Amino acid sequence: MIGGRRAGRGALFIVAMLFAISGALRLGSGVGAALARADDPPETADAALEQGQCETPSALAEALTQRESRVAVQEAALQDRLAALALADAAITDRMAKLKAMEDELKATLALADGAAEADIERLTAVYQAMKPKDAAALFEAMAPEFAAGFLGRMSAESAAAILSGMSSEAAYSVSVIVAGRNSGAPTE
């Protein structure tokens, strides 16, 4: 039995030696790569940044200065744009005020013209009403029926009746139809 034990120890020793040699070889291959890297020059700041290392204070200050100048340029451009918008807004406000004044002036002119036209029609209606019915009837018969109906509609019922009675039956009928149908298209509700 003694010989069997020794043979087992020898095999165990050989396996342990193989493990030790394998570990030494692995350590030796890593040492060569580390020595090769030690001969290289130190990394630049950009490479250091790529690996997550911090910048040097001077590089950081320079980067901040560049960023500050870019922000200042952008801020100046924004201020110029705001000034241009303020000028455009002032010009638009001025134009709107001028347009409003012109619109008010035009409304006043139109109201004056409408008032003058209405006054002229009222005065002419009063003249026709004051005429002798026979003379007014001859004049109304010569007018277009729509025109005559407008004046007769403004007159008192007595004056309009006196003028219509002096007109020919055909002319009186056409004027009466126009006066009667003038408001037929008006809404009832």
From TrEMBL:
Please, which domain of life does this record's source organism belong to?
Bacteria
Stated name of the protein: Magnesium transporter MgtE intracellular domain-containing protein
What is the organism of origin for this protein?
Tabrizicola piscis
Starting at the broadest rank, the lineage of the source organism is: Bacteria, Pseudomonadati, Pseudomonadota, Alphaproteobacteria, Rhodobacterales
